[in-house]
From TrEMBL:
Residues 148-290 form the GFO/IDH/MocA-like oxidoreductase domain. It comes from the Eukaryota. This is D-xylose 1-dehydrogenase (NADP(+), D-xylono-1,5-lactone-forming). Residues 8-135 form the Gfo/Idh/MocA-like oxidoreductase N-terminal domain. It catalyses: D-xylose + NADP(+) = D-xylono-1,5-lactone + NADPH + H(+). It holds the Pfam family GFO_IDH_MocA_C3.
Length: 383
């Protein structure tokens, strides 16, 4: 058996998701039945201090020879780093990803990809020019469950898919939990429900209706969006979207479909226990419906109810996640690097851009703008 292809990661930022992702990277791939690729963490950088980066590496139990840097520019100069995981707030993705690409590093950048579609196009253009790999880190798409559900849709098991409803809502006392400075509500950090949580509702709508068609049959949806703002900062706290896709699966498409993508800080998808309010996602076709239990970003339970079956006759299937589940997207990055691919077939550049355009349009319809310095295409800009 040939030895696994090994990818050397650099971690840019040391916040909550950087820690979760890094711990997942370090899990033994055999625990998820993977043997063709593996990951090592060779460096991490913090914009606050080198000590913070050292602490992060220790907290994640990274190898003792992993390098700690007190700035992002130092990290991207490290010749041992193959790919950088960008885990800063959305406001910083464009600047940080440009920094990495211009230094010749491949990039996996957290969601939302950038603050707007123009920035997404610019980083893609830069990756193309530099012949580098670039992907938005929408980890849910790489779950075996997501891949299985997409295949069922493509194979026509649901019949013609006419509607997908997806909700990813939090249920927080926003004032008490996030105040005015936290990245979830701070406009300077591109805060708001849409870019942070709504992206997962959109992910389910797009991966079921759009991605399941052959690339040349996919058509961007028309968009109707409603936003309500958090009075203290102006960030969107409730966003509801109605998308009409002119083409829908299975191919060849014979009909349109609606996607209803919801997100809300004030009320939750699950007010109590998951079991009482399932499902968070409903994929509805003429032959049956797939229901996926939330949370939309890390689902574990799902079921298929064929038309004619009683709701209670169909059991929920529980998928196993041996860790947090972020390693599946990392495995895809490794395979793309190994095979010399600049983008992933599971979430290609064009689809990330169409989703960013959808969010741009919802914001445009509702007069939702971020400060110019985080919407700009200028680079470099000090944030
Ligand atoms: N995939 C997922 O499930 C998931 C979950 C949560 C978040 N996310 C995404 O990951 C990104 C980071 O989220 P997070 O929850 O990890 O945030 P966080 O805990 O606040 O961490 C963000 C990190 O970014 C760095 N940073 C650089 N400039 C900053 C600034 N001006 N303000 C705040 N932080 C700054 C800081 O690290 P240093 O001081 O070390 O530079 C900070 O620790 C967001 O884009 C978010 O949407 C994804």
């Amino acid at each position: 058996m040939s030895s696994p292809y090994t990818v050397r990661w650099g971690i840019l930022a040391t916040g909550g998701i950087a820690e979760t992702f890094t711990k997942d990277l370090l899990l033994d791939p055999s625990s998820r039945d993977v043997s063709d690729v593996k990951h090592i963490v060779v460096a991490a950088a913090s914009s606050s201090s080198v000590d913070r980066a050292k602490q992060f590496l220790a907290d994640c139990s990274c190898p003792s020879d992993a390098k700690a840097y007190g700035s992002y520019p130092e990290l991207v100069k490290d010749p041992n780093v193959d790919i950088v995981y960008v885990a800063t707030p959305h406001s910083h993705h464009y600047q940080n990803t440009m920094l990495c690409l211009l230094a010749g590093k491949h990039v996996l950048c957290e969601k939302a990809f950038t603050t707007n579609a123009a920035q997404a196009k610019k980083i893609i253009e830069t990756a193309k020019e530099k012949k580098l790999f670039l992907m938005e880190a929408v980890w849910t798409r790489f779950f075996p469950m997501s891949i299985h559900i997409r295949k069922m849709i493509q194979d026509g098991e649901l019949g013609d898919v006419h509607r997908v409803i997806a909700d990813n809502s939090f249920g927080a006392n926003v004032e008490e939990r996030w105040g005015t400075q936290h990245r979830m509500v701070n406009m300077e950090l591109a805060g708001g429900a849409l870019l942070d949580l709504g992206i997962y509702s959109l992910t389910w709508v797009f991966q079921c209706i759009y991605h399941t068609l052959p690339p040349d049959s996919r058509k961007a949806p028309s968009v109707l969006g409603s936003i309500s703002k958090y009075a203290k900062t102006g960030a969107d706290e409730k966003t509801s979207m109605l998308l009409t896709f002119p083409a829908a699966p299975p191919a060849p498409s014979k009909h349109d479909a609606h996607g209803i993508a919801l997100t809300n800080f004030r009320v939750a998808t699950f007010p109590n226990k998951h079991e009482l309010t399932r499902p968070a996602i409903r994929i509805q076709g003429t032959k049956g419906e797939i229901q996926v239990d939330g949370p939309a970003y890390r689902p574990r339970n799902w079921r298929f109810i064929p038309v004619g079956k009683g709701d209670g006759d169909v059991e929920w299937v529980e998928a196993k996640i041996p860790g947090h589940g972020m390693f599946w997207e990392a495995d895809e990055c490794a395979r793309c690097l190994r095979d010399g691919r600049s983008e992933s077939e599971f979430l290609g550049w064009e689809e990330s851009v169409v989703i960013m355009e959808t969010m741009d349009e919802v914001r445009r319809q509702n007069g939702q703008k971020y400060p110019e310095k985080i919407e700009t295409l200028d680079y470099p800009v000090e944030l």
